[in-house]
Amino acid sequence: xxxxxxxxxxxxxxxxxxxxxxxxxxxxxxxxxxxxxxxxxxxxxxxxxxxxxxxxxxxxxxxxxxxxxxxxxxxxxxxxxxxxxxxxxxxxxxxxxxxxxxxxxxxxxxxxxxxxxxxxxxxxxxxxxxxxxxxxxxxxxxxxxxxxxxxxxxxxxxxxxxxxxxxxxxxxxxxxxxxxxxxxxxxxxxxxxxxxxxxxxxxxxxxxxxxxxxxxxxxxxxxxxxxxxxxxxxxxxxxxxxxxxxxxxxxxxxxxxxxxxxxxxxxxxxxxxxxxxxxxxxxxxxxxxxxxxxxxxxxxxxxxxxxxxxxxxxxxxxxxxxxxxxxxxxxxxxxxxxxxxxxxxxxxxxxxxxxxxxxxxxxxxxxxxxxxxxxxxxxxxxxxxxxxxxxxxxxxxxxxxxxxxxxxxxxxxxxxxxxxxxxxxxxxxxxxxxxxxxxxxxxxxxxxxxxxxxxxxxxxxxxxxxxxxxxxxxxxxxxxxxxxxxxxxxxxxxxxxxxxxxxxxxxxxxxxxxxxxxxxxxxxxxxxxxxxxxxxxxxxxxxxxxxxxxxxxxxxxxxxxxxxxxxxxxxxxxxxxxxxxxxxxxxxxxxxxxxxxxxxxxxxxxxxxxxxxxxxxxxxxxxxxxxxx
Length: 629
Fold this sequence. Notes:
Mean pLDDT: 92
Strand order of the largest sheet: 1-10
Number of helices: 24
Oligomer: single chain
Shape: globular
Strand content: 5-15%
Number of strands: 12
Largest sheet: 2 strands, antiparallel
Low-confidence stretches: 1-33
């Protein structure tokens, strides 16, 4: 039998730095007999090995290792020692024991994928069409894991195939490959997968989440957009970053062709998705949620787009994630005042002003550009009126900052005085609302039960969740985390087209699809009529700013911001400003509604990529450390 030899396992450890025990290597076969031959003797065991290959896709709902905590979209109300990602955000990354260390995990994933590809042809009861589909899925996963490594570590070793037992020690000591070569290999894998994958899964009850043709096309589009972005395209900051043999790891020469290829790939992915019936999600009333105002429908377009399982916009969702705990952390404690003793909803996750500032006014332009929005006095107090009752509680005093914002603002965040539709109240004229100052129902309780900034992550909470008044039960509708959706592709296409060819009707068209779903006028109309910079959309640089802000709003709290700020090379500017929010320790409106510095973040050139563990560098003398670490 083809057992995993101790020598081969040692070679694997040299490559990855993994410290897995041998008895947990496969986790697939009975009696802990880790034999590759057994795994591929039957279709059922081979399929289990296939699912093992899937199991390494990062779980963004795992707050310990989520990029949302490591960036600035999730704020925790204290400095807990048991959340590594929060330590990254607070500047405690290190090389001795890197936090959120995906290096060994991703290389184990690649090893498993290669074992599968080497052995899937040995499965005797597998139909040729199914075998091709499985191979396509695993080639996609290989591409995805290489891409994830690229986004986290920059130039990385490529694992085309597993190291054979006969390899010399020097062959085991792999080196980083130049960024362009890594991208080329990822695209090569995706092109091979595109020839094998089905357009859709055969059984939606059991196979949703499996890789299909539109998922692979979408990832290829995203990879090429990232490769064309400033971090990887003509980045002179990494000009001196080389392997030990002097091989440059970054191409410092800018290439317009990379943007042209990205525009072609995004358009192809969108056209494929359209042909297969994908469309931007729009909420349809139900027996439970009916007779809704237009304002609430627009909010539900955003909330349900993210929380409604497998809706028309979802291209790829990670079925290894079920966002139950995430909804507990996002729902305000005592949203129903009669359920104040229900300890499951805690409303712990907060969002800083940096993110809430991105959201437009009701006129569809930035808050600091709108001719009619009182930006200078945005922290003044104002009382909600009847005309605003679907966004802000009538008669409640809150800040000017919360008034006259676009519907996505009210769909994405909960805040003091803000309306919260659903979750036990489905009469649009009698919804819950937030009272978040100290001593009020949703005010700060202890060290954990409150959002640090005063803004709750409402976007994650399914409107039909119910908490009990007696007992300690909070019934949530779980959903898998969205990895790729059609709106994401629209924004990537607009970005690639603008970078490749400049402003055009096609760029405005794809931006306006997103804006129309959010209840906003188009880019040209909004800026022409309401902005202090009425021609901003007419230049490539101005439209770039618009596209990046539109992307920041539309994909807020979805994990894109962490990578977008890096690939745009704007993280140094953004992350070196104070993290601020309301003063949630206060009882009175005049004290609560003042901008408070919560903490200061620091970000330098080295933070664009993760460090490699010093142990891995000792084991493999050919590896060079990430620049700056």
